[in-house]
Amino acid sequence: MPPAAYRSQEWFARERGRLFRRVWQFAGLKTMLGEHNAFITREVCGVPVVIQNFDGELRAFENLCLHRGAKLQWERAGRRPLLCRYHGWGYDKAGAPANIPLHDELYRFSTAERAGMCLRSFALRTVGNLVFINMNAEPIPFEQQFDAGFIASLESSSNAYDGEVITTTWTGRFNWKLAYENLRDANHPRFVHAQTLARSVDFICNVDEALVIDADAEPAPGAGRDLLRRFSWGGRDAPLRGVAPYAWRGMVERWGSDDAYYNWLAFPNLHIASGDGGHAFTIEHHVPLAPDRTAIEIYWMTAKKRRPYPYSSTVLLALMHGSKLVVGEDVRVMESVQAGLHDDAPQGNQGAFEASNRLIERWYMDLMENGGEF
Amino acid sequence: MSSRFVIGRGPMLDIAMATWSAVQPDAAPARVEICQRADYGFDWSALDAIDRDAEVFVAFDETFGNFSRLEIFQAAIERGLHMPALVSPRAMVAAGVRLGPSCYVGDCAVIGAGSSVEYNSVVHAGALIGAGVRIKSSCWIGLGVRLADHAEIGMHCTLREGVIVAPGTKIGRNCELGIAGVYREDIAAKTVFDPRYDEPIVVYGG
After folding, report:
1. Which residue among B39, B199, B203 sits closest to A313, beta carbon to beta carbon?
2. Distance (Å, rounded) from C-alpha A112 to C-alpha B150?
3. What's the pLDDT tens digit per position in B179-199?
4. Considering only CB atoms, which chain A residues are within 8 Å of B156?
5. pLDDT at A113
6. What is the CA radius of gyration of chain B?
7. Residue of A nearest to B71 (CA)
8. Given an 8 Å threshold on Cβ–Cβ distance, is B205 in contact with A166?
């Protein structure tokens, strides 16, 4: 791709409108929203969003009060009614201000004015334990973005997640696309993760001949819409060189029975993995902040516990530190690539094994330059 | 055979040996290294060789949220061993301060009146603990950490060098305060401040 795709503010704004405001994006975990009034907040395409449980129904709204624009929920996650701290406006599951304290004395909105007040809402879809939202008023069908087999695999695996979740965010100085390209490049672990991940996983890097042909072929009119589904896949990825018999692994309901590294890549910016054969799972969500800055949201959870054990959060912290090491290796490389970019930098030369990245690149460039096909 | 033992691993074993020798120069304890396997399980053969009713001190670092040290502590309890607190003669501990089994208080640490340190917790050298402070079990209070009056530290917390906890502040269990600075607000359980990360690490649910 041209350097501008990774560096230009104008490109970034166009990408936000043409891609991110139209696709389904990961928004959080259902286990963090299990009770009435449980909520999570986040920023999607620069918009503050709250996802809130109303008596078991999950709703996504813009997290801004209709009175003065204060954020309704402040914390990243918690449990409280959808209620503004500024003047006490409370909202119902339709996003309407159901309670405006001292309305008749101080506000005196007409019935028509009040009827017109409603928080901006967003489409929401759950798959197993995963929550996705779409920022578009007329969202594409979820099944247009992800194929049925992928959705089923996400659903099955994420239903195995335990409710105890560790999470943090760190900021990388790179464009988000470098992350999806890196994740679809099975040749990098042996170099970038030689002392870490590659010592325990035999990543398989081969050439998909059919994909090479498709990546090089002239697309048929209308084919772009179907291509989107091909950018996401998941399941068993590579064999493990054994799974260490840590005591905690005996205390969780393992998902599956293969000693395998599982990988789920959901275009555009979600990566889920289980590096220990279904005992624990990590979610990496690469959230674009600026052309050269990406928030890396990391979650870890084990498979469901058979029974609580006192050091479970310490297990999660150890797993998080593992991510800091391995993902940190990726981040260093991606930051190095980003730092070397300039307006006249040469474009990369991707090989046959990178056909999936080439296929995405063709679709993406059509989207960015011609409006593309959704 | 000695009836006093310091069991553990690493620098904490050296520190505890030196402290016990300073407390009782004429009755130096035996040093017992304990081994950990690749799966992080302990080899208890060294512990099994100690006679019941002996006095032991568990000297192990804060690895794995202080749960590794707790595991040794529990193994010692199961074997009927006695585990008094180990307090440096150079520490200043106010009268009436409650110190649980196998607590450690290092050189020049100060603990104010009405405070308590529960079992298996470590207060390192130079720590300044105010009055009425509660340090629950299996904590690790690093070198020079300052806990102001009536602060409360939940079990399995690790507070590293340069941390100051303001008066009355409550730190939930399983927290790690690893970034130097003043913590003025209560901190939810299982929150980690680690200088390698841009934001706190938080655990939800469970």
Report:
1. B203
2. 55
3. 999 999 999 999 999 999 999
4. 314
5. 97
6. 17
7. A311
8. no
* Contact with chain B for residue A168, Cβ under 8 A: yes
Using CA atoms, how far apart are residues A84 and A99, in angstroms rounded to an integer? 10
pLDDT at A94 exceeding the cut of 60: yes
pLDDT at A341 over 70: yes
- The domains of chain A, with CATH numbers, are 1-20+162-374 (3.90.380.10), 24-139 (2.102.10.10)
Residue numbers in B near A329 (CB within 8 A) = none
> Does B2 have pLDDT greater than 70?
no
Residue of B nearest to A33 (CA): B205
Give the pTM. Answer: 0.96
What is the spatial distance between Cα A184 and Cα A203, in angstroms, rounded to a whole number? 12
Instruction: Please provide the DSSP assignment of A7-62 as one string.
Output: H-HHHHHHHIIIIITTSEEEEEEGGGG-STTEEEEEEETTEEEEEEEETTEEEEEE
What is the per-residue pLDDT across B59-87, written as a single tens digit (0 to 9) for each?
A: 999 999 999 999 999 999 999 999 999 99
Given a cut of 70, whether residue A181 has pLDDT beyond it is yes
Using the Cβ of A306 and the Cβ atoms of chain B, whether some distance falls under 8 Å is answered with: no
Please state the rounded mean pLDDT for residues A319-330: 97
Within the 24-43 window of chain A, which residues sit less than 8 Å (CB to CB) from chain B?
Answer: 31-32, 34
**Quick one: average pLDDT of A170-190?**
96
CB distance B59 to B4 below 8 Å: no
Of A69-78, A157-166, A199-208, A301-310, the poorest mean pLDDT is in: A199-208
Task: Tell me whether residues A76 and B202 touch, CB distance under 8 A.
Answer: yes
How close, in Å, is residue B72 to chain A by CA atoms? 15
B128 forms bridges with which residues in the sheet? B110, B146
Mean pLDDT for the stretch of residues B152-172: 98
The rounded Cα A149 to chain-centroid distance in angstroms is: 19
Rg of chain A, C-alpha, whole Å: 22
Dihedral angle over CA of A42, A61, A143, A31, nearest 10: 60
Average pLDDT of span A48-63? 98
Mean pLDDT across chain A: 95
Locate B188 and state its tokens.
């939810």
Q: Of B94, B92, B90, whose CA–CA distance to B114 is shortest? A: B94
Given a contact cutoff of 8 angstroms between Cβ atoms, the answer to whether A146 and A232 are in contact is: yes
- Beta carbons of A314 and B192 less than 8 Å apart: no
∠ CA A188-A191-A193 to the nearest 5 degrees?
A: 85
What is the Cα–Cα distance from A64 to A50, expressed in whole angstroms? 9
Residue B201: closest CA among chain A residues belongs to which residue? A168
List the domains of chain B with CATH numbers: 4-78 (no CATH), 86-202 (2.160.10.10)
